[in-house]
Write a structure and sequence with these properties.
By secondary structure, this protein is mainly beta. The protein is built from no helices and 18 strands. Strand 14 and strand 15 form a beta hairpin. The termini are far apart.
């Protein structure tokens, strides 16, 4: 019996940067296997993940334990059962790009960070989503979540938020954009681009 692979990582750095890594995975990834483009202490940016088939675990473009996770790209040709996060940083997660051609069984977050800014992330999902879709997510009550762009082209069994604050558990941000197009017929949760604009879900 072949050993179970628990994680696939493009590059790691315990004290430095993990940038410009490329992961190109054809076929299916088994359940419980996480995929991360780069894990670095100071920076995890400009990583690219391309998945041609299906994945049964979480996917993170870049993850920084103490610094920034910016400009990571994720392209998924099939379906994902776990969460998908463009960048996960400590002080910044901006300009990440996620494109999903199929379905997502978890939550999709463009950029996630403890402090600073989770802004200008782009998400495009051309299928059904069973979790929330969030452009930028931040923990610091004074952090920024602006300029995020979300396009949903399928049913969403969750909320769609331009920006979200984990600390206050409130929607926040400005100049975020949410576009519902194509075959989308329902959103079971709320649709809210930022602090001031809110719409109820589409039944």
């Amino acid at each position: 019996m072949e050993p179970q692979i628990s994680e696939i990582i493009g590059g790691t750095s315990a004290q430095g940067t993990a940038n410009q890594n490329e992961l190109n995975i054809a076929g299916s990834v088994s359940a419980g296997t996480s995929i991360t483009g780069g894990i670095g202490q100071i920076d995890a940016s400009d990583n690219n993940i391309l998945i041609s088939g299906d994945s049964a675990g979480a996917i993170i473009g870049g993850q920084s334990t103490q610094g920034t996770a910016n400009k990571n790209n994720i392209i998924i040709g099939g379906s994902v059962t776990g969460n998908v996060t463009g960048g996960e940083g400590k002080i910044s997660s901006e300009n990440n790009n996620i494109k999903v051609a199929g379905n997502v069984g978890g939550t999709v977050i463009g950029g996630k960070t403890d402090s600073g800014s989770a802004s200008n992330n782009i998400i495009s999902v051309a299928g059904d989503t069973q979790g929330d879709i969030i452009g930028g997510q931040i923990l610091d009550p004074n952090g920024q979540t602006s300029g995020n762009q979300i396009t949903a082209n399928g049913n969403v069994d969750g909320n769609i938020y331009g920006g979200y604050n984990e600390s206050t558990q409130k929607i926040q941000g400005s100049n975020n954009t949410i576009t519902l197009s194509g075959n989308l017929t329902k959103v079971t949760g709320n649709i809210q681009v930022g602090d001031k604009t809110s719409n109820s879900g589409i039944p």
